[in-house]
TrEMBL record:
Its main location: membrane. One of its GO terms (cellular component) is membrane. The chain crosses the membrane at residues 62-82, 129-146, 152-168. Keywords: Membrane, Transmembrane, Transmembrane helix. PANTHER family: ADP-RIBOSYLATION FACTOR-LIKE PROTEIN 6-INTERACTING PROTEIN 1 (PTHR20952:SF0), ADP-RIBOSYLATION-LIKE FACTOR 6-INTERACTING PROTEIN (PTHR20952). Residues 22-181 form the RETREG1-3/ARL6IP-like N-terminal reticulon-homology domain. It is found in: Membrane. This is RETREG1-3/ARL6IP-like N-terminal reticulon-homology domain-containing protein. The lineage of its organism: Eukaryota, Metazoa, Ecdysozoa, Arthropoda, Hexapoda. It comes from the Eukaryota. It is a multi-pass membrane protein. It holds the Pfam family RHD_RETREG1-3.
């Protein structure tokens, strides 16, 4: 991905999130767990949302419709609230820099994910046996999980992991766990 194209993507994302910019700054601190209670707030918010969905006991299509309505409502109300509660004069150059860094990070992660998907699908040309082994195995595991575990619960777990992932990466928790796992066999061999 060229640098010019990435800069254009950042500009487009900044324009797209223009109404949300006052809300994006506090959300960044929540998603990166700048306070100890932020992960609990994320899990609690997602839990309440899924508890309401579970209580409503809607079919799948109605659930998607309700979630879509909720997201549309948020997309409508957040820019209005941001503009009415915070005047544009409060937006500083430092806030703009933080907002641009957030947009740059989103674009970088999006492009990284896209590259990884392209690399996976390039296995089909380069190593078809490996491609089919990995894809069929993953699809079988997914089918088994979907038939064994409640789908709403699976979506709940997926949502929690996706929303906690930026904080996990920022804090280096995954790297710490992987290094502990990597060190565990060595300490067993030493005894």
């Amino acid at each position: 991905m060229s640098e010019v194209n990435q800069e254009q993507q950042v500009k487009n994302l900044k324009r797209f999130l223009e109404g949300w910019r006052m809300a994006v700054l506090p959300l960044k601190s929540v998603f990166l767990w700048e306070q100890q209670w932020h992960p609990c707030a994320i899990v609690a918010s997602v839990s309440v949302l899924y508890f309401i969905i579970w209580l409503m006991d809607l079919n799948t299509l109605a659930t998607f419709a309700i979630v879509g309505l909720f997201l549309n409502f948020l997309d409508f109300i957040v820019p209005i609230m941001c503009n009415s509660l915070c005047s544009p004069s409060l937006w500083t150059g430092q806030n703009e820099k933080i907002f641009e860094d957030i947009c740059r990070g989103i674009v970088a992660n999006y492009n990284k994910t896209l590259r990884q998907l392209c690399n996976f699908y390039s296995l089909r040309e380069n190593s078809p046996v490996m491609y089919y082994i990995v894809s069929i195995s993953m699809l079988c595991i997914l089918a088994w999980m979907a038939s064994s575990i409640n789908n709403i619960f699976l979506l709940y777990i997926f949502s929690v992991v996706v929303l906690l992932w930026p904080g996990i990466q920022h804090r280096g928790i995954l790297n710490t766990l992987l290094s502990m796992i990597h060190m565990a066999p060595k300490s067993l061999k030493a005894e």
